[in-house]
TrEMBL record:
<feature type="transmembrane region" description="Helical">
    <location>
        <begin position="12"/>
        <end position="33"/>
    </location>
</feature>
<keyword id="KW-0975">Bacterial flagellum</keyword>
<feature type="transmembrane region" description="Helical">
    <location>
        <begin position="79"/>
        <end position="101"/>
    </location>
</feature>
<feature type="transmembrane region" description="Helical">
    <location>
        <begin position="176"/>
        <end position="201"/>
    </location>
</feature>
<feature type="transmembrane region" description="Helical">
    <location>
        <begin position="213"/>
        <end position="233"/>
    </location>
</feature>
<keyword id="KW-1133">Transmembrane helix</keyword>
<keyword id="KW-0966">Cell projection</keyword>
<feature type="transmembrane region" description="Helical">
    <location>
        <begin position="130"/>
        <end position="152"/>
    </location>
</feature>
<dbReference type="InterPro" id="IPR002010">
    <property type="entry name" value="T3SS_IM_R"/>
</dbReference>
<keyword id="KW-0969">Cilium</keyword>
<keyword id="KW-1003">Cell membrane</keyword>
<comment type="function">
    <text>Role in flagellar biosynthesis.</text>
</comment>
<keyword id="KW-0812">Transmembrane</keyword>
<dbReference type="GO" id="GO:0009425">
    <property type="term" value="C:bacterial-type flagellum basal body"/>
</dbReference>
<dbReference type="GO" id="GO:0005886">
    <property type="term" value="C:plasma membrane"/>
</dbReference>
<keyword id="KW-0282">Flagellum</keyword>
<dbReference type="GO" id="GO:0006605">
    <property type="term" value="P:protein targeting"/>
</dbReference>
Length: 257
């Protein structure tokens, strides 16, 4: 007759349970997988599948009773580690949203706001457009597969039970400054072009005060802005792929890779 002790049962459950929490924490904020369009059942089943495949390759796990307070803290710890790893990619994808917001403000389309039912936010319409484009480009570059590979490597580089406070948390905090710098560098050519348009109409208003500059300048600014958006798509894939590689590299280095 087969008999299992409580220690053996806790060890068996932990092999699948702790990796599941780390992977699920990352799926909560990762691009595309965190969208409300992806059912929670699909995310849970995908996380369970990956944790099951990982079970034979995991390093020795800490012996913790599955129904103890220590097990609860360990589960929260793994959830936080996965959440912080996924946050690198969430920050990366929102570079495109900020890029669209900057260009919308320069074009005079800042008031054109569209609700995003997937994330429960309201963004400028150009921000939504760039966000969709960035998500599709990230998937086309197989960034989601690389991110899952980093998650798998995290169990080797940062084993379960290693804690959270020893992680380089300041590296994660610095990424919030990186998002503004990256978005500004992508939007800089369009901002300069729109600045020249505004300066031109400012000179016209001084040279010909009787000219209705507002009636002429607003449509011209919008047309110039749309031209800048069209031209920015020519070099955007190359620059955004560099941003994706930078975010994935920072995600890997965060766990000591």
């Amino acid at each position: 007759m087969l008999s299992l002790t409580s220690a053996q049962l806790s060890s068996f459950i932990g092999i699948f349970w702790w990796p599941f929490f780390r992977i699920m924490g990352a799926f909560m904020v990762m691009p595309f997988l965190s969208s409300s369009y992806i059912p929670v059942t699909v995310r849970v089943l995908l996380a369970l599948t990956i944790s099951t495949l990982l079970a034979p390759m995991l390093p020795p796990l800490p012996s913790v009773d599955a129904i103890s307070i220590g097990a609860l803290f360990l589960a929260i710890e793994q959830l936080l580690v996965g959440f912080m790893l996924g946050l690198f990619l969430s920050i990366m994808i929102h570079v495109m949203t900020l890029l669209g917001a900057m260009m919308s403000m320069q074009m005079g389309l800042g008031m054109a706001v569209m609700n995003d039912p997937a994330n429960g936010t309201s963004n400028p319409i150009l921000g939504q457009w760039f966000l969709l484009y960035g998500t599709l480009l990230f998937l086309a570059l197989d960034g989601h597969l690389v991110a899952i590979g980093v998650l798998v490597d995290s169990f080797r580089l940062w084993p379960i039970g290693s804690g959270v406070l020893d992680l380089p948390l300041m590296g994660l905090v610095s990424r919030f400054a990186w998002i503004f710098a990256s978005a500004f560098m992508l939007a800089l050519p369009s901002i300069l072009a729109m600045l020249m348009v505004n300066i031109t109409f400012g000179v016209l208003s001084r040279a010909a005060p009787s000219l209705n500059v507002f009636a002429l300048g607003f449509p011209m600014s919008m047309l110039m802005g749309l031209l800048c958006v069209m031209l920015s798509f020519s070099g955007l894939p190359t620059r955004y792929s560099d941003i994706c590689l930078d975010a994935l590299e920072a995600m890997y280095q965060f766990i000591g890779g």
